[in-house]
Amino acid sequence: MYNPQLNQQGELIHLLTTEGLPRRILNQVLDRAAEFVAQGAEGNKKFNHLAGRSVFNLFFENSTRTRTTFEIAAKRLSADVINLNIQASSTAKGETLLDTIHNLEAMGADLFVVRHAQSGAAHLIAEHVQPGIAVVNAGDGRHAHPTQALLDMYTIRHYKGDFTNLRVAIVGDILHSRVARSQIHALTTLGCPEVRVIAPKTLLPTGIESLGVHVHHDMREGLKDVDVVAMLRLQNERMSGAYLPSTQEYFKHYGLTPEKLALARPDAIVMHPGPMNRGVEIDSAVADGDRAVILPQVTFGIAVRMAVMNIVAENQARR
Amino acid sequence: MAIKNIAILNGRLVDPLAGTDRLADLFLSEGRIVGVGQAPAGFVAEDTLDASGLVVCPGLVDLAARLREPGFEYKATLPTEMAAAVAGGVTSIVCPPDTDPPLDEPGLVTMLRQRAKAHDLARLYPVGALTAGLKGREITEMAQLREAGCVAFSQGDVPIADLQVLYRAMQYAATFDFSLRLRPEEASLVNDGVAHDGEYASRLGLTGIPVVAETIAIAQIVQLMHATGCRVHLARLSSGEGVAMVRAAKRDGLPLTCDVDINHIHLTDVDIGYFNSQYRFDPPLRSGRDRDAIVAGLVDGTIDAICSDHSPVDDDGKLVPFAEAERGATGLELLLPLTLAWAERAGVALPQALAKVTCVPATFLGFQAGLAVGNRADLTLFDPEATWRVTPETLRSQGKNTPFLGHELKGRVRHTLVKGKRVFSA
């Protein structure tokens, strides 16, 4: 099947989703990121892979953390970085999304990092940009957040070495989570034999089993013997209303406490994409505990984003 | 001077009303069929059409085509869409009231019909708004709208939130034996949904519209029909469960009819692919199982008719993220070929297939669409074997967007006659 992220040689030219990416490409990103981490450990922080290139950080949706890590990653590769926060929705009167893109192309963009509230926005942009310009999806609606998933994979590989004998549980608001979807595709592609999702029925998408996951509603049962616990952030607007009655009740059933974590394997790691809601999805004792790898995730995130931008820019240039 | 007498020679006459399919000549005079097989005594043809290799059938009746006038002339206008209709062999167009302003006053309906007459191509059958401004609060002057020419009453795609209003509207319509055309959809269950609530939407992260949004609305309408005796036509079913409910209601003897649009006969949710906004429809494209149930419902007669749901949308409405895209597609010129494609795939004979787009919808409008002496000389002559590619250039409609762009379709209209006059030839 046609894959808009790959060129005819099967090389990555945009990163839009982890779905449909072959294992060799996921590993290529992780390996390249490992090189950047190793170099960083030796004190080399600055590289010239993107010298003379312009990276446009295009954030149609609020984000500080992701935008900052992309900015740092691009700057470490010596790119010129332009940050644009475009809060106005493209449906509001005025410039359309593609108008904005074409204007920025005219300003000499080489790589767009895009975050947008609508699922599929990054695909739309990738489909309409000039040849030679790369698009990296920094989160589109509920659909995908591939760099987050890749940094999670990096973290898992770092601590566990391999995916082929792991049990991974993803916990929380799967329904609205682009992170969960991207994690699931990456994990199944990398050979993880058992991916579980744990959530109340209101926060699970219809037919999620078709993505190859086991569904659990009871967190205690779902966490049993897992090697990795991937927590998700619960958005404020979902904390009360028709999805959930209250944060207290949610925390009681789906919050990660030391007592629930004790059901996982003794060496299980705990991940979270941030920002955390302490006392809602995660207990501070876990968040600050020795099993949490939440801060290393952030560090690895920069290397993974460097790797992604490096690879797509390289493949676009080689056209 | 206008031509009065036309002879159509050597054609394959497919009469869905009679269920016949045979080679014969057809003779028209003053807007009516006056002879089948042989000309009436003293008939002198002023114009002759050689229909060798062509199917001759009653002109198509499209139960839902938005012409976008008044209010949305930047998307399409009467002249362009009328031309598209006759190029597609459609001779009678039913247009929903969701214009701007909506067709909720007799004056607006009269104006629209006057303007349609000025572009005397296909016949126009306006559907009146069921409530003022389609707001779902006050019912319209249905009797006066009827006098102005409305054939039925509808909310377009805007559901009535207040069941009390729908209940009263159905009682009032039943008083005069008017028919309502309702699209079964419970708005609170659609919410911000944009695609069928199933595995594929979950994968794409698109907000789902569950099947219950349709079935709950059908259940409500059926109960209100029992209570009021109102005649209802359900517009554009999308789900297998919905089809099953209509089948049961018909078995119970309710005066319920329904249609489906050409897109839902052929497409499913996975066709959305990578967020292709050409596939953004209301109701959404559903699963393969739903599509198969729709096809089965057409074959067994549960679904009475096929409409184009013609909705011209410009590129600005489509070149946006999927959820923000305008719904709908151009369809007037695809109604015939896509009906033929369904018939071929489902193994349905031509008279039965064409009945879904000719004589059956015609009965809803109160006329007979057949090829017998005395029937209207609204005719479509098409080459059933000719293929053509759907491109912006081959479409006459101002709406160039459809999931079938680039597709090679079978069935090309060669001549269209309305009221015994040739209004299209190619």
From TrEMBL, chain A:
What positions does the entry give for carbamoyl phosphate binding?
65-66, 115, 145, 148, 274-275
What EC number(s) is this enzyme filed under? 2.1.3.2
Q: Which domain of life is it from?
A: Bacteria
Q: Is this entry keyworded Transcription?
A: no
Which stretches are annotated as coiled coil? none
- Residue ranges occupied by any Aspartate/ornithine carbamoyltransferase carbamoyl-P binding domain in the UniProt entry: 14-157
Instruction: Give the UniProt keywords, A-Z.
Output: Pyrimidine biosynthesis, Transferase
EC main group: transferase
Q: Which SUPFAM superfamilies match?
A: Aspartate/ornithine carbamoyltransferase
Q: Does the keyword tRNA-binding apply?
A: no
Pathway(s) the chain acts in: Pyrimidine metabolism; UMP biosynthesis via de novo pathway; (S)-dihydroorotate from bicarbonate: step 2/3
- GO molecular function per UniProt: amino acid binding; aspartate carbamoyltransferase activity
Residue ranges annotated for the Aspartate/ornithine carbamoyltransferase Asp/Orn-binding domain, each copy included: 165-310
Q: Which GO terms describe its cellular component?
A: cytosol
Q: For this protein, what reaction is catalysed?
A: carbamoyl phosphate + L-aspartate = N-carbamoyl-L-aspartate + phosphate + H(+)
State where L-aspartate binds.
93, 178, 233
Annotated GO biological processes are: 'de novo' pyrimidine nucleobase biosynthetic process; 'de novo' UMP biosynthetic process; amino acid metabolic process
**Entry similarity comment:** Belongs to the aspartate/ornithine carbamoyltransferase superfamily. ATCase family.
Its subunit composition reads:
Heterododecamer (2C3:3R2) of six catalytic PyrB chains organized as two trimers (C3), and six regulatory PyrI chains organized as three dimers (R2).
Q: What does this protein do?
A: Catalyzes the condensation of carbamoyl phosphate and aspartate to form carbamoyl aspartate and inorganic phosphate, the committed step in the de novo pyrimidine nucleotide biosynthesis pathway.
What is this protein's name?
Aspartate carbamoyltransferase
Q: Which organism is it from?
A: Chitiniphilus eburneus
Q: Which gene encodes it?
A: pyrB
Automatic annotation (TrEMBL), chain B:
Protein name stated in the entry: Dihydroorotase
Provide one Gene Ontology cellular component.
cytoplasm
Q: Which Gene3D superfamilies match?
A: Metal-dependent hydrolases, Urease, subunit C, domain 1
Instruction: Tell me the CDD domains matching this sequence.
Output: DHOase_IIa (cd01317)
Record has Metal-binding as a keyword: no
Give the E.C. number(s): 3.5.2.3
Domain named Dihydroorotase catalytic is located at: 54-241
Q: Note the superkingdom of the native organism.
A: Bacteria
Q: Which GO terms describe its biological process?
A: purine nucleobase catabolic process; pyrimidine nucleotide biosynthetic process
Molecular-function GO terms, alphabetical: allantoinase activity; dihydroorotase activity; metal ion binding
- Species per Swiss-Prot/TrEMBL record: Chitiniphilus eburneus
Which keywords, in A-to-Z order, does the entry hold? Hydrolase, Pyrimidine biosynthesis, Zinc
> Which segments constitute the Amidohydrolase domain?
346-424
